[in-house]
Amino acid sequence: MSRDVTWRDAGLRSPLLRALNAAGRALEPLGLRLPSLEPESLVEAARRQTGMQDFGPPDWREALEVLCASMDREARLSTFGRMALRGLVTGALVNRLKLIDYAARHPEVRQERIERPFVVVGLPRTGTTLLSMLLGLDPGARPLMQWETDSPTPPPDLASHAEDPRIAASAARMRQLESLNPAIRAMHPMGATLPTECVALFLLDLRSLAIETQALLPSYGHWLESCDMQSTYALHRLALQVLQSRIPTPTWSLKTPHHLWCLENLLATYPDARIVWTHRDPVAVVTSTASLNTAMQRATSREVDPRAVGAAWADKLHLAVTRGLDFDRDHAQKSWCHHLQYSELMADPIAAVRALYAHFGEEPGALHVRRMQVWMRERPQNAFGRHRYDPADFGFRAEDLRERFSAYRSRFDVANE
Known about the structure:
By secondary structure, this protein is mainly alpha-helical. The protein has a single domain (4-10, 116-412), classed as P-loop containing nucleotide triphosphate hydrolases (Rossmann fold, 3-Layer(aba) Sandwich). The protein is 54% helix and 6% strand. It contains 20 helices and seven strands. Helix 2 (39-50) packs across helix 4, helix 3 runs antiparallel to helix 11 and helix 14 crosses helix 15 (306-330). The protein is globular.
């Protein structure tokens, strides 16, 4: 029987890592905060790991400096948290070095055509994970998997894709994360071979909402809201081209709410994208997102204020739908996306996918339908527990959230839950 899980159930479970955090805190009066989050320290670590020097165009440098300052001065990271975020950023720089190097040695990858990708752009907690899994079951669509974003180069090939050792390495990292903070598994499914958000590819340019799930980073977050994302989408496309170069791929299945912030960039990069915008009551969306991110940050930060996390993410999600509304108004004459209500997806997922395909003049094949039926039977939504959340924990009132998001709710006829 599944159990209810809230953000209060989350946190660092390892006695060893708790002791490490205590030792790190004891060193701070001596002026020592370890490990280092200085930008050059992370750059040199990435270069040592790879033996490579070329990071490509310099757009990443400003992002790194803003991010490191925010992590060091604002995030209230524990010693383990500093280790985790240093590893996250260094890993992104390592992947960037490898990607740039591979593309330089294999210039033909830039000729790969990324055609008509499915791109799910709905807010978090609106059924985007389920939808991306169902779309990824189409034999003609390729989902972006967690292990591929962990280490995209060298690209896997057809002969070794199923046995690539990076799968086991990624699975081991997932198990470690679950053991350190077990409540997360009930809040958000994770797995090395499950579809993942393509926001992970935004990490290559250090412009990614994924970083803000790990810690409260106000100055980085404000910078991210207004930064130029052109270079980020260029790397996003290059990563897909590299991955596709060894495994013929008719189309991709992608998703992240970060796309809502920059739809112009998305369509400039993928002009024939089949975009899906999922919609759900913002009370549930904002509260669930605040709960998930509070739970995640309890593993990396010394002190987590649920109200501060809630306020930050309410602002981010409101900005996302505001930009989406503006884009929708400016492109009202075009059927630029398919709108899908969360209630419809939950009531009959396969019918929702059929309607989605019909919007783009297609229909799912018989094998795709059969795969979706099996998936829904064998992977119930609450297999690892039920995520419970209360708006009051984050300083929210339902009526205030509905009023703040009233333009969004009215435009897309979003029902209350």
